[in-house]
Amino acid sequence: MKSPSIFRQPSAFIPVVMSLAALATVVIHVAMFGTARQADEGTAARLWQLLMALQLPVIAAFAVKWLPLAPRQALLVLGVQLTAMVAAAAPVFYFEW
User: Fold this and answer.
1) Domain map of the chain by residue range?
2) Each residue of 25-74: pLDDT tens digit?
3) How far apart are alpha carbons 26 and 32 in whole angstroms?
4) Largest CA distance in the chain
5) How many CA atoms lie within 13 A of 29 on its CB side?
6) Alpha-carbon span 59 to 11, nearest angstrom
7) Above pLDDT 90, what percent of the chain?
């Protein structure tokens, strides 16, 4: 019997979902309001910050649990999580939002 994939573990896919939600927040904000600077951080910026920051403890918990048990799969999942984080952060840095 094959063990279940660690990709199906919540600590593996929740950070990716959070990164995609952060990216969607940026895309929707830019589509609705453009890239002009605002006087104060809006709700979209705060939501992006929360989504990006709150996934870090989830990623750390995943790494602590799965790196010793299944290092190859865990590194692959961590790579996917890192790629999703970079994808969510790229528009923010590009638009200097």
Assistant:
1) 11-95
2) 999 998 998 887 777 788 999 999 999 999 999 999 999 999 999 999 99
3) 10
4) 58
5) 22
6) 7
7) 71
Residue located via tokens 């200097």: 96
Based on the number of CB atoms within 10 Å of its own CB, is 93 exposed (0-12), middle (13-18) or buried (19 or more)? exposed
Residue type, 52: M
| 97 vs 7, residue with greater confidence | 7
DSSP string covering the chain: -PPPPGGGSHHHHHHHHHHHHHHHHHHHHHHHH-S---SS--HHHHHHHHHHHHHHHHHHHHHHHHHHH-HHHHHHHHHHHHHHHHHHHHHHHHHT-
Torsion angle in degrees (nearest 10) through CA of 94, 58, 25, 38: -60
pLDDT of residue 1: 35
Express each pLDDT in 64-87 by its tens digit.
999 999 999 999 999 999 999 999
